[in-house]
Amino acid sequence: MSDVENGTKGNTGDFNFPKSSSSNGNNDRTPRNKKKRVRPLNPSNDGGAKIIIALLAGAGAAFLLSLLLLMSRLESQEFENGLLNSNVGGAQGVDDTLYEEQQEMGGVLPLPNGAWRKQHDLMQVQQKGQQQIATERQSKLLEKIKGFKDSNLDRMNKFNKLFGANPLDPVMKDANHELDRMEAVLEGEQKNDKPMKKLDLHEKLADAVHKEKEEKKKQKAARKKELGIVDDVALKQGDKVAAISDEGAPHLQPHFPPLPPHTMSVELFGEKIITDTLSHNKPTMAGIIAILQRFLQNLHQFLKDHRDSKAPTVINEYFALVTKYLVPLEEAYRDKPVFPIREDGSIFMSLGAYRDHLLGETLRQAFKNAASPDKLFVGAVVQNCFGIDVTCRTGVEVKGQDEHGRPITKISDREPDVNGIEQFCDDPEYTKYCDSGQIRALYVNETESNGPTTARYFASKLWGGETYFLQADAHLRFAPEWDRLYTEEAKAAKSYPKAVLSAYPPGFSEGDPPYKGGTVGTRLCTCAFSTSDVEHHIIRINTGGTCGENANAPTQIAYIAAGFFFARAEFLTDVPFDPFLPWCFMGEEIALSLRAWTNGWDIYAPRKNLIAHQYRPGRMGLPKFWENTGRVFGRPGPGFNTQLQSISLKRVKYMVGYKDTTKEALENLGHSVVLTDFEHYGPGETRTMDEFLEHVNIDIEKEQCGNIKWCNKCLMD
């Protein structure tokens, strides 16, 4: 099994985590029937406006909008009521104003028949009441301003953690200065001897963004000069390629920018982007991303609402959430590609990155070593701890040994994760790929991450019509011209175009010399039923024999590795990724292998290794998604994720035919929800599930994996 620890922004989180210190059923199977920085991708006349909107849609939106509303309210109401008027100040100003009004009305003139004293007493009562109202209003307004400043100061600090120095800083500094002056006037510490300023925050933000943009241009130009990149012709050629690509693929317009994180597609393009994609057969990449973001927003609230729920309830309600927000997209493009497949040799690389510090370097390596980088497109699901309303934590780190030789472990607070997309896009050598729309990113707050299967589902939806589909982990190295060589290897397979290349790549360590590739590829020819209670007896795949260096063509293998496979994009239509496998780490590979083979796809081992993978043992102390699950549900440790996984895995076990996971058994256990929409994500109709088990020599009754001679001996073309 690949060692991906992917989980599944959609949105900012507000989870408050505590800081740490140091029986067999009958097989009555029923027949089954057979998806930091603002930068406009295409510079245009309205680029500045798009930049402003993107920032407003990000983590600073709440600050700016609430500030605008507050100041507007102050100007329209309280100024007129005499609390902050330039000629009167505080409650005394209200008294003076009331007195002047009484004079104008004749209220201080003597009254006949000795009624003056009664009227005077009545006026005093009224005046005291009005003064009290004004004082209370003043107090409430002062409290509102102070509370606003305190809460949003914290937000801006977290925003700065996310983006560093940014154009919001000077704008917010001016706005806070005005709020300070309002506060001082209300408290009587300062006379309001000059009119309050009406701040045009939009204009100030636009100016600040423009200045930062110009500064970035200068920095990039200096960096290009330092690197010897003077061929603007090459950049223009890249723009030309992108323009040609867009001309033949209108669904890639409007471009959705990969930065800044948490930019909301609906805020940029409106709700119509969703309705066109779902209802009018006019899908766009921006529309797909908007649908995924809407699901993530609702998942955020779902997790808060079910923090104390039991595992079965969480699973049942999660499936309902998927049915409501994701299934409409699945239904709209069932059994057909979402976008037309371009026959231009382009490659889409699906990356699920869970708090991965190597994502940026993986992207650099992929583009740097590609024979045709202009034909490489990436869909990255960036599951990070952004440090917004949560304290970021490390994984379980080994700090030493106790007196008995046992490891001493600790989970500590840490800084927010690096954004690999930002690292890549800010590099002058690779900025053009972000600007041309070749990098598509979906940001997922760590709190909403729930395993690699969900992350891979999201990433598959970022495919935009490219010829080939490559799924990989986000910590890789690439051999020179890897893209051309994998394409040629797939075409060399006898079953092409319905051929899948897959392998467990060799490992690498940070600091190794540049990867050259060329070693003999591994073959996925063995399996075993896990004996771990955590993995619930699920089938795990592994490597087998090799074919040597002189094989004339790729030969078939038994299984697909989730951490690397390469196929034509029709694979996504025949074997759509399953949105109903949350909180699973094991099980995706046996399910993927069975579904692909029964849908008519043959699996091949590439003869040579062209990528290397960083394998990550626990001692590295990197965060795991199941640790996050425990924190989100208020049950630290992996235990609750194990409970959730045990239910989700029943979907895979039912697919493979486990004797204790029949339809009747699931109903008796109250877990029939795991069969939701199973007919669309189960075995195919080209071959049967039983034929697959025979093909790979699995005895499901005895839970045994036998020797697969044809695989280990490289006998099947």
Q: Key terms for this structure?
A:
717 residues, disordered N terminus, alpha/beta, seven-stranded mixed sheet, globular
Q: Can you characterise this structure?
A:
With 717 residues, this protein is of the alpha/beta class. The protein has helices at 47-57, 61-78, 90-105, 116-163, 168-186, 201-227, 232-247, 265-269, 272-279, 285-305, 311-325, 327-332, 359-368, 420-425, 431-435, 452-460, 482-492, 570-574, 588-598, 625-632, 639-656, 663-669, 678-681, 689-695, 709-712; strands at residues 347-354, 376-384, 397-401, 407-410, 439-445, 468-472, 476-478, 499-502, 526-529, 539-542, 564-568, 602-604, 611-613, 698-699, 704-705. Strand 14 (698-699) and strand 15 (704-705) form a beta hairpin. Residues 1-14, 16-62, 72-113 and 230-246 have low confidence and may be disordered.
Task: Summarize, please.
The protein has 717 residues and is of the alpha/beta class. It has helices spanning 47-57, 61-78, 90-105, 116-163, 168-186, 201-227, 232-247, 265-269, 272-279, 285-305, 311-325, 327-332, 359-368, 420-425, 431-435, 452-460, 482-492, 570-574, 588-598, 625-632, 639-656, 663-669, 678-681, 689-695, 709-712, and strands at residues 347-354, 376-384, 397-401, 407-410, 439-445, 468-472, 476-478, 499-502, 526-529, 539-542, 564-568, 602-604, 611-613, 698-699, 704-705. A hairpin with a 5-residue loop joins strand 3 (397-401) and strand 4.
